[in-house]
Design brief:
Chain A is mainly α and about 300 residues long. Chain A contains 13 helices and two strands, in the order ααββααααααααααα. Chain B folds into two domains: about 180 residues, D-Maltodextrin-Binding Protein, domain 2, CATH 3.40.190; about 140 residues, D-Maltodextrin-Binding Protein, domain 2. The chains are: A mainly alpha (about 300), B alpha/beta (about 375).
């Protein structure tokens, strides 16, 4: 009853404030149009043009940039990147969900402290944090030398410069982006819903599976996208922790623009990344709609 | 209706792209330089690698000429090229770029022909410094430092098996496998295989590059990593025993461990140079020339030798600094004549895409 009244009031305020709201929208919309849509339009047009010898484009129409993107060489880079990003995302979920759940069980002031601790690594430069892993993991590093001193290892083991090191680096970098959305989804669940389930005879584990988990899924999806997308596009971690021995699609795109000076082909690769991202958001919106029966855009 | 609206939008965008790209090709006309220009009325923006010249240069230059100097930094050639070729005025007057990139800038008409009458310190340069393939006669670029690429190794850990050939790096003896790094930047990634196979480091032949690729793929299985920035530290820690290295960077390892040595493999190597160029868009060209002249001063260049441990093509500076350094850093003693035996790196033109594709193929194997 109280909810209904406050809804009505809110509607009224919203109607009155419609005009001022539109004004508030102007900076955001301008930002998106000028800094996203127009550049994206450029990228789209570039994909049909030919490369200039020193970068840039020559206005000769071609479709060869698209056919080239289907070369097995580039498809393999894309598939490898998707695999790495998927593993990273699944691991981030496996680690992030319990952490987020545990935080919601703490008293409020402790929750804030934990959230601050989780974003704390972001206060240090990403490159430095990545280099730190090299210092920790290399054969002469703290971990190997420490384990050898303790007699656990007789020979240093190589932990770096392989795909697993890339996954580790990405997981470390983006785990907070999984924890935070899941936490915010979990913390918003009305405790009354769980209590109702238990009152109606559900065991705590049933209540968790049938009430808590489904309601957390929107947060999980957002977290998944937040981890998957930057993992897919990252080119620093494969270079440093992968030892440059493997490349991901982010490296591929950067190299087309800066090294090969092939802007049109780089544009095709960049555009396909954008389309993948859109597809992910579309899927996420559909799942959300099905779960919650509403469209959280 | 929807379709046609989309078509109109696309056409409008295409038109916008065309207009913008055609704008970028028009340049300011290069007028005559005025030797008596009041330099205190000009301001300079310099782009250089971080810590690659003395920090007090802007202050000293201002004290001498009254010109305000701002220094911005770039991390790589690619980064500064992206800025300079984006079209329009980058706001940069003088840029430090490697020779082959100066060549590419000149080919695009983005940099100014240098007026040597405003750079009297050009007399400090070795005669060999005017004979670099990317810009014979230093028409549009002035060399700042130069050197070569070789193998940097731990003589104590490789006793009796010291490297002499690029093949020692590409196909290391069993005990050294996994303790080798190569440079990651494309041109130097290709170099050991190109030289080992007897090819030019500037080859544009697809068949030669296919063989280079095969050799690099074989070599990859023995590598610890591709590394452009920390390879000398890996030698110091012993994580690696030999690395492909620029001469100056090997000196950073030698400074920490005297067992580290540098060798130019018998198949030969490259001659790289970092240069200074003046942008056509600069409105402060007299000051830009004065700046380049100032940098070619004996004392400034000897700072580079003492602090960066790079060789410079500046005769009086080398004569001043070399005696104190050459015992500890033998590669500082490589003479200009010896350097010129190395092949000068030149721009690849259209073939740059071939090199990137091969680098991609190597890294996916």
């Amino acid at each position: 009853m109280k909810d209904l009244e406050s809804n009505k009031e809110r509607d009224a305020i919203q109607r009155r404030a419609l005009l001022s709201r539109l004004i508030f929208l102007v900076p955001g919309v301008t930002y998106i149009v000028v800094l996203m849509l127009i550049p994206l339009g450029f990228i789209f047009v570039y994909t049909f043009l030919s490369r200039g010898t020193y970068g840039g484009i020559e206005t000769v129409f071609t479709l060869s940039n698209y056919t080239r993107a289907l070369d097995p060489l580039y498809l393999k880079v894309l598939l490898d990147s998707i695999l790495i990003a998927t593993i990273t995302t699944l691991l981030a979920f496996a680690i992030g969900f319990p952490v987020a759940y545990a935080i919601t069980k703490l008293p409020a002031h402790r929750q804030n402290l934990m959230l601050v601790l989780i974003v704390l690594p972001f206060w240090t430069n990403f490159l430095i944090r990545t280099y730190a892993w090299i210092v920790l993991l290399n054969t002469q590093g703290f971990l190997n030398q420490g384990l050898m001193k303790l007699g656990v290892l007789s020979q240093p083991i190589s932990l770096l410069y392989k795909p697993s090191a890339v996954v580790l680096g990405l997981l470390y970098a983006y785990l907070p982006l999984m924890i935070l959305p899941i936490y915010s989804a979990l913390v918003r669940i009305d405790p009354a819903m769980r209590e109702a389930a238990v009152d109606l005879g559900a065991s705590p584990s049933e209540a968790f599976r049938q009430v808590t988990l489904p309601l957390a899924i929107p947060g999980v999806l957002i977290g998944g996208i937040f981890v998957f997308v930057p993992s897919l596009g990252n080119f620093i971690v494969p270079e440093l922790l992968g030892g440059g021995k493997m490349i991901m699609v982010g490296n591929l795109i950067r190299d087309q623009f800066l090294k090969a000076r092939d802007w049109p082909f780089g544009s095709v690769l960049a555009l396909s990344m954008v389309l993948m991202l859109l597809l992910l958001f579309f899927i996420q919106a559909r799942i959300n709609k099905r779960i919650l029966g509403v469209n959280h855009a | 209706m929807k379709v046609s609206r989309a078509a109109i939008a696309t056409a409008a965008l295409a038109a916008a792209v065309l207009v913008l790209t055609s704008c970028s090709s028009s340049n300011s006309t290069s007028g005559k330089l005025d030797p008596k220009a009041d330099l205190s009325k000009q301001v300079l923006t310099i782009s250089n690698w971080a810590a690659y010249m003395p920090d007090d240069i802007p202050a000293k230059f201002k004290a001498k000429f009254g010109t305000k100097v701002t220094v911005t930094t770039h991390a790589t050639n690619e980064e500064i090229m992206a800025k300079l070729t984006a079209g329009g005025d980058s706001g940069i007057d003088v840029a430090f770029v490697s020779g082959q990139f100066a060549q590419a800038l000149a080919a695009q008409g983005l940099i100014e022909t240098l007026d040597k009458s405003l750079i009297p310190n050009v007399a400090n340069l070795y005669p060999e410094a005017a004979n670099l393939a990317y810009d014979k006669g230093n028409v549009y670029s002035m060399p700042y430092s130069w050197g070569t690429t070789g193998i940097c190794y731990r003589s104590d850990l490789m006793k009796g098996s010291e490297p002499t050939s690029w093949m020692d790096l590409l196909a290391p003896k069993p005990q050294f496998k996994g303790k080798v790094t190569m440079l990651a930047t494309e041109r130097w990634l290709m170099l050991p295989a190109q030289k080992a196979l007897g090819y030019s480091i500037n080859t544009q032949s697809a068949t030669e590059m296919a063989k280079v690729k095969d050799l690099l793929i074989k070599a990859k299985s023995n590598l610890l990593a591709y590394d452009d920035t920390t390879f000398y530290d890996r030698l110091v820690s012993g994580e690696a025993v030999m690395v492909e290295a620029w001469d100056g960077w090997c000196n950073y390892g030698i400074a920490k461990n005297k067992n580290i040595k540098f060798v130019i493999p018998k198949e030969g190597s490259d001659l790289w140079a970092d240069t200074m160029v003046v942008l056509k868009t600069s409105k402060n060209k007299e000051a830009a020339h004065a700046f380049i002249n100032y940098i070619l001063d004996k004392d400034v260049q000897s700072w580079v030798i003492d602090n960066i441990l790079y060789k410079v093509p500046n005769k009086p500076a080398m004569e001043k600094s070399l005696p104190a350094l050459v015992a500890q850093y033998p590669n500082m003693g490589i003479t200009p004549a010896e350097l010129l035996k190395g092949e000068s790196i030149v721009d690849l033109g259209k073939a740059s895409a071939l090199y990137t594709q091969i680098a991609t193929e190597v890294s996916t194997k």
